Each structure stands twice: as C-alpha cells, then as structure tokens.
Amino acid sequence: MTDRPLDREKASQYNITITATDKGTPPLSTNKTILLQISDINDNAPAFEKASYSIYVPENNPSGASIFQIQAFDPDVDQNSHITYSILTSNIEELPISSYISIHSETGTIYAQRSFDYEQFREFQLQVKAQDGGSPSLSSNVTVRVFILDRNDNSPQILSPSPDSKDSALFEMIPRSAEADYLVTKVVAVDADSGHNAWLSYQLIQATEPAFFTIDSHTGEIRTARTFMERDSVKQRLVLLVKDNGRPPLSASVTLNLVFAENFQEALPEMKNQMNSSEDQSDLQFYLVVALALMSFLFLLSVILAIAIKLRQIQKE
C-alpha cells in the first residue's frame, strides 16, 4: 500500500526492499529488492517557456519567411508528451488570421503569410495553442504579439506649395518693397513613415539668384536674404528639396516660381510669359518626339527595302 499519491514526474521508479524474518532463536531473515516503475497518465498540460511572446518583424518582409519559433514542454512521456501547435481562429481587419500568419504544427515555427506594411497596421496579436497527444488530450494557450517595424519606404509628400503634375508650384508674388527676412512662403510636407524615417529637412538646391533667398532646414520657411534691387530679375525660380532622415534617405522636390510685383496686375504679364514659355517648351518636346519617330520609321523602311532588293538579286542569280 502507498501512504500518498505517486507522481511519475517526481519519481518514475522506486527500489523497494522487503525483509522476511522468522521468530527463531536466533532469528533468520531474507531480503528481496523489487523495482517498482510508475506508469504515466496524461496529467500535465503543455507549458510554454513564457507567459506571452513579442515578435518584431520589419515591414516589407518576404512572404513565407520564418519570423519566430515558439516551444512548449510536457513532462509526461511518449504520446502524452507529443505536442502539436495551432493558431486559434481570429480576424485582423476582417481577414482571417491565417491569411497573415501560419505555424508549423510539429516545430512551432511561425511564418509570415504576406508582406507586412507598417503604414497599414503596426501590431496585432494571436493565440497559439499547444496540445498533447494524450487521451483525453490537454492543451495550453499563449498570447503572441507581433510588432511591425518601420522601414523608410515612403518619400516625403509636399503639401504646400501645392505642386502641379510637373512638380512646379503656382506663382508666389513678393512685394518689391519687401525687406530682408521677408517670409515668402513655408514648405509643408509630410512623411507616412515614423520615427527617424519621418524627420524632414528642407534645402534650396537651385535658384535664379541663390544668395537672394534662405530656407530654414527644420521649418521649411523661405525668406528673403536682402531687399530687391533694380538689377535683380523680377522673376525668380527656386527648386526646393525635402528629404527624410531614413537610410537611405528619400526625397521629393518642387519648383517655386516667384514674381516681384506690388500688385496682381503688375505680376500678371510676367506670369503669362512664364506660362507661354512652358507651353513652347512642351511643344518643342512634342515635335522632337515626332521627328525622332519619323526618322526611325524611315530608317527601318530603308533597311527592309535593302533586304528585299538583295533577296531579289539572289533569286535572279
């Protein structure tokens, strides 16, 4: 008889020595040692190493890539300790979790089923189930949190001055009487990334008169460096660059056209001249493309005729 419950996980076997003694004088005895092995029953559920897990995955990861391995342990033996893994059913943004994450049932390796986008969602969580092979089976669940890490995959977007289809902003008018440090405009831009990848800096990379204007690299404010002089051109063209702090950095640019005038009526002729110049340049580009296409066609036609004449001469011979 046992004086307490036996636990195979604490002691899987016992060496029991039985002694038989008679009542003679002197008494005689015999010893017998019995090996008692404790059979296993499925009384332990699988246990995970941690109460919860956190996984960090850079965005734009390859689909099907292994991102983590989770493990559970069962102190039972044989089939009672054989563990299989699965992910409990849930949804992420109305899509089943299985369309984002899968797990190998035997190894516990977790795979990404698609490329994650930090700008779409930044984290999600799932429940992993570990179930043993006993009868009846026992199981445990653990929470796994997946955090998507940002990569610098978005260029800055310039909101103001608002660029047109050719990245050229509308005209800005500056009074001829503007003093030095006059605020011309402010470049406003955003970046869909986060952290260092979204830190923006502003540069003036090209100007009709570079010493005439300054730009604050942090705020994007464009100011005059001095007063307007008669020798200065009333039309000024600035090319502005907005760059993020990612590695490698991404950038966007816009062209800002400026006119020095006291009123709109004075500035209007200069604006029209600029627009006509742009239209003439577009027309010239169109004619160049047409001419190039025509030359290519004539060259191809001459080659075909030369080949045809050569074949005809061969046939006559």
Automatic annotation (TrEMBL):
<keyword id="KW-1003">Cell membrane</keyword>
<feature type="domain" description="Cadherin">
    <location>
        <begin position="4"/>
        <end position="48"/>
    </location>
</feature>
<dbReference type="InterPro" id="IPR032455">
    <property type="entry name" value="Cadherin_C"/>
</dbReference>
<feature type="transmembrane region" description="Helical">
    <location>
        <begin position="286"/>
        <end position="309"/>
    </location>
</feature>
<dbReference type="GO" id="GO:0005509">
    <property type="term" value="F:calcium ion binding"/>
</dbReference>
<keyword id="KW-0130">Cell adhesion</keyword>
<dbReference type="InterPro" id="IPR050174">
    <property type="entry name" value="Protocadherin/Cadherin-CA"/>
</dbReference>
<dbReference type="InterPro" id="IPR020894">
    <property type="entry name" value="Cadherin_CS"/>
</dbReference>
<keyword id="KW-0325">Glycoprotein</keyword>
<protein>
    <submittedName>
        <fullName>Protocadherin gamma-B1-like</fullName>
    </submittedName>
</protein>
<dbReference type="InterPro" id="IPR002126">
    <property type="entry name" value="Cadherin-like_dom"/>
</dbReference>
<keyword id="KW-0812">Transmembrane</keyword>
<dbReference type="GO" id="GO:0005886">
    <property type="term" value="C:plasma membrane"/>
</dbReference>
<dbReference type="InterPro" id="IPR015919">
    <property type="entry name" value="Cadherin-like_sf"/>
</dbReference>
<dbReference type="GO" id="GO:0007156">
    <property type="term" value="P:homophilic cell adhesion via plasma membrane adhesion molecules"/>
</dbReference>
<keyword id="KW-1133">Transmembrane helix</keyword>
<keyword id="KW-0732">Signal</keyword>
<keyword id="KW-0472">Membrane</keyword>
<feature type="domain" description="Cadherin">
    <location>
        <begin position="49"/>
        <end position="158"/>
    </location>
</feature>
<dbReference type="Pfam" id="PF00028">
    <property type="entry name" value="Cadherin"/>
</dbReference>
<dbReference type="Pfam" id="PF16492">
    <property type="entry name" value="Cadherin_C_2"/>
</dbReference>
<feature type="domain" description="Cadherin">
    <location>
        <begin position="174"/>
        <end position="271"/>
    </location>
</feature>
<keyword id="KW-0677">Repeat</keyword>
<keyword id="KW-0106">Calcium</keyword>
